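Section 3.1: Structural characterization of target chains.
Under the original work plan, the team committed to producing a structural model for every single-chain target entering the pipeline before any wet-lab resources were allocated. The record below documents one such target. The sequence was received from the expression subgroup and is listed exactly as submitted; it comprises 292 residues.
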Amino acid sequence: MNKRNDKLGFAFTAPYIIFTTIFFLLPLLWSIWLAFTNWNLISPDIQNVGLGNFIDALKSPAIHAAFFVTYKFLLVFVPLAVVLSMIIAVLVHGLPKFKGLYLVAFFLPYLSSGVVTSLIVKGFLSYNGPLNTWLRNRFDVNIDWLGSPNTALFVVSFMIAWKMSGYYALILISGLESINDEIYEAAMMDGASNRTIFWKITVPMMYPSLYTVLILAVGVSFGIFTEVYQLTGGGPNYATNTWQMEIYNQAFVNLKSGYASAIAILASIVTFMSISVIRKLIEKWGHHYGWN
């Protein structure tokens, strides 16, 4: 019976193991080997360059820009996404009925294609788009939303936050539902204001769901590509040039696959270290309120 269960368990997990091996493990090993070579994806000749790709990447202004731009996205996108999803979760949680219907409505942008969403936003913010047309007619003002380094990053961040907020709200509303109403009643009997109840009771008791949302949002900020590719192409002046955008440009535009693999490895190291540090900080905040 045990052997039969073992075989059955392996049969159920085999598709995932095969999928992971083919589409994750083998490409990972291939990219590590490729990072030490110079290959243009076309020529049959592959030159071994040792650590040359890593040294060139560490000296590249584009890589330096991608490093700082990623953290700029982190500082702008994560707070936006958390605040928007928290507002949605609180509003929907307070509804007397049709909560599921409203949650589905807010969740729909998450299901939409990033390419389609980006094209809609690009058209909306273009020179002849409805927003700039209204600003010119009403205030005689024209803003180059995607052509200015000061606004392009915020536009991309806000668009992704809008797209992801419905998904994050689903996680946060589960945390709200888990809080016992008797705690709120006791706090109100003690004279606590709504603001005090929210910051001292609701937010700390939502730590597990907030932890999940924060880690997911941080992961998204290190993997932004589609929206940047469609809206700005990494510009202007590297203002939105992310790690993924630089990897794509080097691999498929400049045909430097080895150099692109080296950038991908550096990006993976930076992402892993950053998420580890942020996770420790979030856990320290949770320990302050008694969460283990």
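The beta strands are 37-38, 47-48.
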